[in-house]
Amino acid sequence: MTKPRYRRVLLKLSGEIFGGKLKYGLDPEIIDSIAKEIQKVREKGVQIAVVVGGGNIFRGMTGSSAGMDRATGDYMGMLATIINALALQDALERMGVYARVQTAIEMRQIAEPFIRRRAIRHMEKGRVIILAAGTGNPYFSTDTAAALRAAELDAEVIIKATKVDGVYDKDPMKFKNAKKYYKLSYLEILNKGLKVMDSTAASLCMDNQIPIIVLNLLKTGNVEKAVMGKQVGTLVTSS
Asked: 105 partner at 20 to 30 Å CA-CA among 136, 199, 230, 232?
């Protein structure tokens, strides 16, 4: 049997994906499909950490643009990620995949606090770690949280799962002539202003030499292909 290319991965899920067809709130069908994709990868012996966004429920930047205090809006967004994390944990455990939610904001009644060594131990025991509440600080995106946690947990790659099958020079939903990139460097995404991750997250990945794979989560089997080392989506590396 072919061995996975990556033994420990960090999967970054945007909050919008959790909305599915509803586009807002939680779509149970999509959450179950996400859990199935994670289950396939876990069955190959790959250790998985998941960082979830909360944009399907509340986005701090949206509140800020409407006049809300930015820090308050960001904390509300962090709470939204915890709702998504709990929903994903429930879906995974219904499929027989053990999972633990760890949060950057302490709330002992519903989740563990993020403790690096405990998170690593969970993964070594075959449990999926779902990391919520971003970094626990306002003004930092969940992309930055993904880059930070990947470095802390010694993840070999960040798989950024989106609704698009890679990185384009412009929005492929609006422009039919949008050009897809199959491979990029960290400096290229920073210099070209490509919306792979924000500049803080991209710089963290560059400093720690963590490759990023951007792919379409809604296409069945994409995450598994990426973990096995097959060409899928867009790969971002140092060269």
From this structure: 199
Flag whether 96 is in a domain. yes
Tell me, what's the pLDDT at 27? Answer: 93
* Residue 85: closest CA among 41, 49, 126, 52: 52
Amino acid at 37: E
* Residue environment code for 151-165, b if the CB has 16+ CB neighbours within 10 A, otherwise e: bbbebbbbbbbbebb
Q: 37: helix, coil or strand?
A: helix
Domain that holds residue 32: 8-237
Element of type H or E holding 157: strand 157-162
| pLDDT at 82 (0 to 100) | 96
Taken in order 43, 46, 49, 54, the sign of the CA dihedral is: negative
Phi, psi values for residue 228, rounded to 5°: -80, -5
Within 8 A by CB and 6+ apart from 237, the residues are 183, 184, 185, 186, 211, 212
Task: Give the CA distances from residue 229 to residues 4, 14, 194, 202, in Å, rounded to whole numbers and listed in that order.
Answer: 7, 23, 24, 21
Query: For residues 44 and 37, what is the distance between their CA atoms, to the nearest angstrom?
Result: 12
Whether 79 has a pLDDT exceeding 70, the answer reads: yes
Percentage of the residues of the chain whose pLDDT score is greater than 90: 79
Domain count, the chain: 1
Kindly report the CATH number assigned to the domain that includes residue 103. 3.40.1160.10
Q: Give the pLDDT confidence score for residue 1 in this predicted structure.
A: 64
The confidence score (pLDDT) of residue 129 equals 98
* pTM of the full structure: 0.94
